[in-house]
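Entry for the shared binder. Reason: the reviewer on the internal report wants the predicted structure included alongside the sequence.
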Amino acid sequence: INPSQPVPGLYDIHPAAHFIGMISPPIMLLALPALALALPGAVQARNDVGVIALAWFVGTFVPFELLSLIWSRTSYLYYMVIVMPGIYIAVAELVTRIRVNAKLIGAWAASVVAAAIVMYPFTPWP
């Protein structure tokens, strides 16, 4: 078996697509601060959104981390698919609660859109 040509006819497939295995950098920029700021409100049960975000994050992320630590199990990027909604909730809550210039929030939102366009997973090579 030749890995570069596993089956006759599966070569020269156009357009060749590239996959960027990354989570959106603008989202991840605010992920840890958002989760950290959601913690006090969740502990005191004042912020239902914070409780949901933290519960979602911890309930979906920690099991994979424990499996990795205890049994040296390999973690894959697609495991984050179920974790990310909790992060999205926390980041959205952070963006709505912080008191910064609206232009700064607009620039961050534009960077989220730009990252989604640039990092679209199956963009053909030019």
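Summary line for the report: The chain has one domain: 24-115.
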